Amino acid sequence: MVTTSIAVKDYLDLCERAGMFFEYVEGQVYWKNANEHPIEDELLAKLLNTDIELDTKFLGEMPTLAHRRLVSNLHGIIFPLLKKTSFEIFNQDTHIWTGIEEHYRIPDLVITDKEQSKYLENRFLTNPIVLIEVLSPSTQKIDKDDKVEEYLSIENLTDYLLVSQDKVQVWHYKRNKEDSWTYKIIKNKEEKIDLESIKLKVSVKEIYEGVL
Fold first, then answer.
1. Which UniProt keywords apply (predicted)?
2. 31 Cβ neighbours under 8 A, 6+ residues apart
3. Hey, where are the domains in the chain?
4. Would you write out the chain's pLDDT as a tens digit for each of its 212 residues?
């Protein structure tokens, strides 16, 4: 399927009008929560038409209740633990540039060093420390394939978490001292995820509270 390519500026204008519902890869626009295929030309033209007032029918697939709870739980666990540190966490509203030309993503959660944060054009965070994605049926292929390759190429990134919403399962990609990556799959609620770079451990049981 071939779709129209648009400029980064048009993509940013669209995000400002409609909210953080879109990602951008090599000129193609994707729904944040349904990103297997780019948005088709006819709908994209409507989205880009400033004479049309956008409403919820244009917002694509919305996150499930489980997805929202997992993101909320993760933010609620991590936010207070970072209060007296140089790190901060952002919730679903931070564009990042992966370091690959024209690849702009919006992870579910981003942790960065507020004293060292760098932005491209004052918009795109270029040096996140930890990225977290909650998997959805329509996004898990991208999250587990394309985004792994993109995210792990970010120079400052130390951890990438993929959190299943259907079962207790977390993929933890971790950069080691040799600057290579290892990963483990965590399925036990009693385990804790060790985010060594930001000096905290996250309880798997607390992540899934109210979900599974």
1. Endonuclease, Hydrolase, Nuclease
2. 21, 22, 23, 39, 60, 61
3. 8-58, 65-207
4. 557 799 988 988 888 777 667 899 999 998 877 667 888 898 888 888 888 776 544 555 678 999 999 999 999 999 999 999 999 999 877 989 998 888 899 999 999 999 999 998 888 899 999 999 999 887 788 888 889 999 999 999 999 999 999 999 999 999 998 999 999 999 999 999 999 999 999 999 999 999 99
Ordered alpha helix ranges (H), the chain: 8-18, 41-48, 65-81, 140-144, 146-151, 204-207
10 Å CB burial of residue 130 (0-12, 13-18, 19+) is buried
Tell me the residue length of the chain: 212
Is residue 181 within 8 A of residue 175, CB to CB? The reply is: yes
The vertex-193 CA angle with 187 and 197, nearest 5°, equals 150
Q: How far apart are CA 39 and CA 110, in angstroms?
A: 25
Q: What's the CATH superfamily of 65-207? A: tt1808, chain A (3.90.1570.10)
The reported pTM is 0.84
Q: At what angle do helices 8-18 and 41-48 cross, to 10 degrees?
A: 70
